[in-house]
Specification:
Blueprint: H1 9-23, E1 27-31, H2 47-51, E2 56-58, H3 63-75, E3 79-83, H4 94-107, E4 117-122, H5 137-141, E5 147-149, H6 154-166, E6 171-176, H7 190-200, H8 225-231, H9 235-245
Parallel strand pairs: 1-2, 1-3, 3-4, 4-6, 5-6
Helix pairs in contact: 1-6, 3-4
Catalytic activity: N(6)-[(R)-lipoyl]-L-lysyl-[protein] + pyruvate + H(+) = N(6)-[(R)-S(8)-acetyldihydrolipoyl]-L-lysyl-[protein] + CO2
Protein name: Pyruvate dehydrogenase E1 component subunit beta
GO cellular component, one term: mitochondrion
Amino acid sequence: MLFFIAMTVRDALNQAMDEEMKRDDRVFLLGEEVAQYDGAYKVSKGLWKKWGDDRIIDTPITEMGFAGIAVGAAFAGLRPICEFMTFNFSMQAIDQIINSAAKTYYMSAGRVSVPIVFRGPNGAAAGVAAQHSQDFSAWFAHCPGLKVLAPYSAEDAKGLLKAAIRDDNPAVCLVILVILPTMSSLNLGIGAEIAAQVMESNAFNFLDAPLLRVTGVDVPMPYTHILEQAALPTVEHVVSTCKKSLNL
């Protein structure tokens, strides 16, 4: 008989890191407020008390600095999990992610592996305005050398994070703060790439109607609640798009 346990995505991520730290003493977590504060969104709750300062490391507010430390640790054979409080702040460390982590295996002719996971919340939240509401999944997916994960369910979150930690290549694990249809803009989202691949494959012959996308508006995220809601996809948008596809 199978038993299922209800679990939040937050707890699934926490459990994945805890289990992998138990399995492999090379795994450690570093980032802003991940230790004594249990993480900005409590994803690392209890891990510092269990694993201590050597495995759960609080860093200064310097994304370029601690991302570089994490990449260097991966070069040396450790398996760091580098947490950004929000992926909006990962832009401060973009050179470490794109040029140091993603390209080293290729540029070393396969001699240097980079087993690192960059993780953190991604996408729109509520009332945090333009600089804290961006979706970077399409950005990172367009960088050769990175594996990009965007789990929706707790099951996916735990399984994908564990697989990423065990992988010898760099991975970016993006967990959206608000579960909505694709929150990227119409022109830049992952949905555009999926649509293109479907249209270019044999699957095109099985379509009964053209692909339609439900996305956010192509504007910086407004701070005002009314405008914020107008910029994000809603249930009404999904329903109206389905009706359009069905010619209803």
